[in-house]
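We emphasize that the prediction below concerns an isolated chain of 727 residues; any contacts that depend on oligomerization or on bound cofactors are therefore not represented. The input was used exactly as deposited, without trimming of termini.
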Amino acid sequence: MPSGADENMKRVADFLDISVEWTDGTPYGSTLSGRLQDFVAGSLYPETTQAVAALMLDPARRAERLSVRETADSVLRERRSEPHQAVLADTSFWHPKEDDIAPAWAHLRSTVGTGLASVPLDRVGCDALRTLLRGEGDAGGPALQRFVEELEPAIAATGFERVVHGGGKKSGEPLYVGHACISWSDGDLRVWTDPFFCPKAPRYPNHYQPLSPLDFPEERHVILITHTHADHFAPGCLFQFPADSIFIVPDVPEESLLSINVRRRLEQLEFHDVRTLQWGESLELGSFEITALPFYGEQPLGWGSEAGLSDFNRGNVYALRAGGSTSLLLADSGSDPRMSIEEYTRALRREVGRVDYFFANHRRWNLYPPQFLPSSVPQYLCFVPDEELARQQRLMLEPQEFLRAAEVLEARYAIPYAMGGAHWFEERGLGFDPLKKQQRPTDFDADTRELLNSAPPELGLTSDFELRFLLAGQHLTENGTLEWREGLRQPSTSDAFRPAGRSSDPECFAFSGPGLDAELLGDLASLTTLDTGAFLVAGPGFSELYTSPSGKGDFLREMLARLLEGASVTVVRSRPALSAAPFGTDKDWYSLFRRLHLQTFVRMREGDVVAGHLRRIARRPPFRDLPYELSDGIGRLLAERPPAQPHTPQGPGLPPEQTKRWKQIPIPWPSRADALRERFEPVEMTLALVLGKLIHNSYIGCLTLGTAIDAEDEGAWFDSILSQDKA
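Result of the prediction step, given as a token string:
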């Protein structure tokens, strides 16, 4: 990789949002793939889901009161149906077969463009993606490399510069990364809890951007996972860690509707050191001692329920000792039928001792059971017995419970977390933006600042703990002061966060990888018959499929997804296509490029000799008056052939009225084109590039798809098509 390319790749990785798609062959779906949640809401409880969503999600009806009895009756009616009862009697619904679930694709979407790359998550793909994201070398094949190259100029224009310092913070002092992610370092080893990283974006101020492992110098990492809800176990975020990172995870003997076997899933993603800790077990790593403790709360039946749990949301909470201080992280804990939070914190005080930094949340989630349906955990409703449907469930701590727990633990500092912590988390529905004015709490979310008004005299608090409200990117020091992580500072009122832009779905697909063989290319060519606006730019190592925009190409794109299922092929979706990126800033140029390629490909797909068609294009407007030396010179650049002799202009060039017809667009020409740029106008250069790409792509496509070529090599192919324009 060229000098500086590793840092350029890290900068590109900062602006990528990564999600993992899982294959799911289970009958009803798993929580990893999302099929289970869709099945519960859409098949088990369709009428109740629709009714509850209308009240909770429709802005025009938010003021209406949720009819508890009415929705409970709706749940009971749907539960009595024979199909519903048949599902509940099937053990594969409650415990999906783990062997039928596997990672399939990593989807990479950039916050600076409309591109979307998909990398197959076999062993090679996992390692290639991790290598690429960490800037440790070329990987991922031509499609992914071109995707990255197209992003680099846009990211450079944001002005973002990384600030990486060696730390200097004491190992026991926590850094708030955001939501449920806290980080510590001893200078050699960095510890993380529940990483949920958001990508950097141009719409955020440069001095206040999300953090990730790429912003830190440590090479060794330990990651603690508390439980497997999507905002605490986010597989896409974890590819930014090295493969030899140490993961500490809960022990899940059998995957269920409530718990993912996180150890197995991490090993499927090619992480090589995943360790389970039982409750009460400890582990020393570097200067840190990590103890796993019981996870209570956020269960299908919350505080006040009289029913027991046959299964539960399995997890760990952690105590971390370092630098003479102790941090306790309760994640989404609260009371549940097994133990109240009051009893639990008293037990923790005896087990852990006095706590210096107490992290917990009070994110409400005070819901009536039918309200689970439009949430991220609709399967919780399946565990609520009929007699509990009208009883409100408290899944997490109330503000007063949070404060009482801090007193029982004799904490020095009580810090609310796992409730967002920055603007980019609010965008994803993970709590309020703490920089905004205080917002009205909902059934789901609370504002951290409401703790200031939640300690009435009757609560009887006598401890002298201090509340600390951290923003993402802030350290809490030993003496209780807040410091910003290097390179960050709090936005002012002039640093407005711009809304996320909306873009249409990408319509072009680039492919590369070992699975891109002749059979798959033939199938891709056949697919184009489903869409009159579709064509293939085919090559043995890199190919692109163009589809019609919006709805016209929907069926082709659906069939493409089925064709690629299980194929070891990296896919990049973009608008414009990567091969047409130089023209993508202007609709006229892009339209010309697409129209010519479509016409040529249809002939190629039918097995026709296309050279004659290309000759007719070359001698008609707008290419008719292009100097031969220019067209041939561009062709030599594309075919990577050295020029036979220095190029000198011959012929009149384009008439002035034609240069005015086309807009000049900036194209990053390679240095090899300098001699041409000095002699020809930008519009002439761009027209020659359109024609040259058409001729070059057609030659490669004919070779790949087996269409006849009436030339010995690409040089002869170019010469036979352009020879009529010789002066």
